[in-house]
Amino acid sequence: MAFVKLKPGALLSPVPPVLVTCAGENIRPNGLAVGWAGTVNTIPPMCSVSIRPGRYSHDIIRDSGEFVINLCGKDMMQALDYCGVRSGRDEDKLKKCGLTCVEAEGMQYAPAVAESPLYLACKVESMTPLGSHDLFIGRVVSMGVREDLWDESGRIALDRADLLAYSHGTYYELGKALGFFGFSVARKDVYQKRMKELRGTNRK
Amino acid sequence: MAFVKLKPGALLSPVPPVLVTCAGENIRPNGLAVGWAGTVNTIPPMCSVSIRPGRYSHDIIRDSGEFVINLCGKDMMQALDYCGVRSGRDEDKLKKCGLTCVEAEGMQYAPAVAESPLYLACKVESMTPLGSHDLFIGRVVSMGVREDLWDESGRIALDRADLLAYSHGTYYELGKALGFFGFSVARKDVYQKRMKELRGTNRK
Fold it and tell me: What's the structural domain count of chain A?
């Protein structure tokens, strides 16, 4: 199959649509929808978020040196979208959307959102202007999983979080679990055991 | 709902599981599975990929200054996983997986993979060591969409690409389209029209 050559664009896909929260000294908590987010390092854990300099949250994050990435499940889609198109300059978006701010361990100002399945609290390591966006790299200093998604066996049950994915302007639900990392070279008995477990997580 | 506090980890989710291809002067094309990828800028379009310094592709990308991000559909899952657990030092993984290298516009060495729904050909702008991984930022200099996904009306039909998502060690298919960017503030007639179109893209 051949390719049709197109004007270059930012079409990496799917990306994680996340709610980034921040606050400051005498600045109320705000939430911003971010699609340009990624994991950039494993040890120590680091994530990046890219934010336009004109966005209200940009200077709050730069000045406070903190942000929290809140993963988003299906039931947060309306709030997430709203926080992507409206500005914290004009209103208290988190309140408007009925989201609940709670303390995120290790953060001086930035809250987590209680409705999120999992939060990653980050301290800003660097900010790099790239053009339309500034790239913030954050070191994950604490992480919290919503208690209904914490399995006592020590497993984070993200498969029950109904996480959203974002692709080319559209929000999607995650569909069926299809395989596990390393399945292509797994021993047959391991493969069968793991795939049975994975299929058990498919609720539809 | 309260949070259970856990040791910080790299749990941003879902992330795009992509096949990154590279090559060099007298170095055959190689493919590497990358989960730590993200969009970092819109204008000009830029993406990041984080790669461990010990990986075979790392030095090829650093020295050639090029890489291609190939998005992955369901039918590439086996190949993608294999390219994540085996090394190009030991074998020609792309050949072994039956993937076809084709020219990616603007690249001197790095190919695209013909089976991919869409490729983003990148020139390295910077490489930043972060710890376990080095962060490569690439400017997207060309983009190609597989011709069966190019709609003559000028739409990239990524919804027909059966893209994979990756979350916490598991490959997922994208499920139902649930909403479009801005839906939460759309006028009622616009909302209804767009949602009808979106539902039409849900094949299951």
Answer: 1
